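Late entry, written up from scratch paper. The run itself happened at the end of the previous shift, but nothing got recorded in the book at the time, so transcribing now.
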Amino acid sequence: MGADSDAGASPAVPWRKVLYERQPFPDNYVDRRFLEELRRNIRVRRYSYWAVVRETGLVSQQLSCVALFLTLWSYMEQGNVGPLTLLWTGLGCSVLGYTLYEALGGGIDRERTRCADLQSAAVFMAFTFGFSPVLKTLTESVSTDTVYAMSAGMLIAHLASFPYTQPSLPGSLSLNAALFASVCLASRLPGTLHTFAMLSCALLVFALWPCLLQRLRHTAEWTFPWAAGMVCVCGVVGVGTLWPAGALLLFLALVILTLVCPLLLVRLQRHKDNIHGPWDEAEISDDLSRFLS
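Output as recorded:
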């Protein structure tokens, strides 16, 4: 920035901030009025701590959903839960969730009928059951360590790419990553029916539950923290039945995500210092679309 000539003798011709006139000043000349237009933090968004905690609950519950899915898979692999038990439980949860979704306004301005929804579910179940023998043998030539590594990578990709702002319907990358991990893990189960039950559970956890959760956020806001908290508790308890140390790590991760990170955001927001002034690029607020047609 050029030196301010006001420190010396005042110029005979006053300086004007224009580009279309030739003036007896250097190109980088500014006067004392330059910093009078300085503004600080005019577009800074102020966050409320509990509002941020509520939003991070979506991240925490999604992490808990992954933990719940891995817990169910581990129980299936060890033979502690049978495929029929998982199928009937998943069917009951699906019917209950669909009923709740409809009760919260699912029938308003909907393009599909309930019969079409039932038909889609039946087609998916039929195709999944028919291809279960193929999926069961899909990774026979791949080592178990490689399958576990691919599954872990895909679940991390699912968490990283999940559309937390609008989780209904989950994004294609996030959903495909979760289903890919589910197929890899289901192929390591002992039977074909186990594979079918695990894939049905994956669809329920990674595709249908986010839709219901989004409906709860918009229609019954007071229920969202309770639903997210319930999922987090179930995730920690489920992992604790298999790996107590892992449950402790998951609990600490949820506490950091839900309580500590929002606190850091709110605290650091106080130190934010954005400056705006005449050096900023011009912002055109008028609608110029008529000139582009």
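Confidence is low (pLDDT under 50) at residues 1-9.
(Scratch paper discarded after transcription.)
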